[in-house]
């Protein structure tokens, strides 16, 4: 009798969508297994758990249909989050499941056998873990990743190992770093990019505008859109410089959906950070879509 292929379900829990895929132990993503569903992060716990149940069952069904042996589930989740206890501690999204043990809920709602481990990892840490294993940080000992989206995430690795805080989240946060009259997240998260763009286009109604829209305009040569990303790159460089020096960072990567327009931020970043002697690489992550899924898988393999 032929041995079943080992497989793993990875889930990336975002504020807008849950994304999942079934992967091999080597990190190969079975593309036909990639699936996403609305996360309902601002909704009731029933809505949120319904979305998770749907995405877990989808992965289980895929593995079963392909005759694969499912060996574990990895979940990348935004923070604050107690990794060991599997408890979300967020007040700004997923509020209705604050303090609930997600591991217990997932076992009960999906019927997943309890001998199959469910492991959690902070989403920014997952992106960096994925890049250290399969992406653009593979050749570096000290690396960092910035995730740009609705919020602003940051993760660090030293000697190839993630640096974590007492509850398993990223060792250091940057979203609350003081910047001008506010904090850094006010300037380089979704609301920050839109704020910069709005200041340049005061006569335009920006209601409903997404950063992806600004990216499309930049791709079409719109100068104010290009300048928006350039300014954000400059702000990030100024805010990160001392941290990169202190942590002796060799590789600085950018993930999250906004990083799809990273090419417009790269030159200002390089200019501001040119005197950081340890820094050898500034780039976007190898896979904006899959880095967190690789990282979620990696946390399961690491604990096998």
CATH secondary-structure class of the largest domain: Alpha Beta
> What is the number of helical segments per DSSP (H or I, 4+ residues)?
9
Instruction: Extract low-pLDDT stretches.
Output: none
In spatial order, strands of the major sheet run 3-2-1-4-7
What fraction of residues sit in β-strands? 15-25%
The helix-and-strand class reads: alpha/beta
Under CATH, the homologous superfamily of the largest domain reads: ATPase, nucleotide binding domain
Based on the structure given, which CATH architecture of the largest domain is correct?
2-Layer Sandwich
The helicity comes to 25-40%
Element pattern in H and E: EEEHEEEHEHEEEEEHHHHEHEH
Overall structural domain count: 2
The count of DSSP E runs of length 2 or more, i.e. the number of strands, is: 14
- Note the gap between the termini: 25 Å
Q: What is the mean predicted local confidence, pLDDT?
A: 92
Principal-axis shape equals globular
Rg from Cα: 20 Å
Describe the largest sheet.
5 strands, mixed
Pfam families: ROK
Family: Belongs to the ROK (NagC/XylR) family.
Protein name: ROK family protein
InterPro entries: ATPase_NBD, ROK
């Amino acid at each position: 009798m032929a041995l079943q292929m080992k497989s793993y379900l990875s889930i990336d829990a975002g504020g807008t969508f849950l994304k999942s895929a079934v992967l091999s132990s080597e990190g190969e993503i079975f593309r036909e297994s990639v699936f996403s569903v609305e996360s309902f992060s601002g909704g009731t716990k029933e809505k949120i758990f319904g979305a998770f149940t749907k995405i877990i069952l989808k992965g289980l069904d895929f593995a079963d249909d392909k005759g694969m042996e499912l060996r574990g589930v990895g979940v990348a989740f935004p923070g604050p989050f107690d990794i060991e206890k599997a408890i979300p501690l967020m007040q700004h999204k997923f509020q209705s499941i604050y303090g609930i043990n997600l591991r217990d809920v997932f076992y009960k709602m999906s019927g997943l056998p309890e001998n199959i481990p469910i492991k959690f990892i902070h989403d920014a840490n997952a992106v960096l873990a994925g890049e250290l294993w399969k992406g653009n940080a593979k050749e570096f000992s000290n690396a960092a990743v910035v995730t740009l989206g609705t919020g602003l995430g940051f993760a660090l690795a030293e000697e190839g190992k993630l640096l974590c805080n007492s509850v398993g989240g990223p060792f250091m946060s940057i979203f609350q770093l003081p910047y001008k009259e506010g904090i850094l997240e006010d300037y380089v998260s979704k609301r920050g990019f839109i704020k910069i763009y709005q200041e340049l286009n005061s006569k335009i109604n920006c209601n409903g505008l997404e950063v992806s829209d600004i990216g499309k305009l930049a791709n079409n040569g719109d100068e104010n859109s290009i300048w928006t990303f350039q300014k954000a790159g400059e702000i990030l460089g100024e805010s990160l410089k001392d941290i990169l020096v202190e942590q002796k960072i060799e590789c600085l990567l950018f993930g999250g959906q906004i990083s799809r327009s990273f090419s417009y931020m790269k030159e200002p970043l390089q200019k501001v950070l040119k005197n950081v002697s340890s820094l050898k690489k500034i780039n976007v992550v190898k896979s904006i879509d899959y880095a967190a899924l690789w990282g979620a898988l990696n946390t399961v393999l690491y604990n096998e």
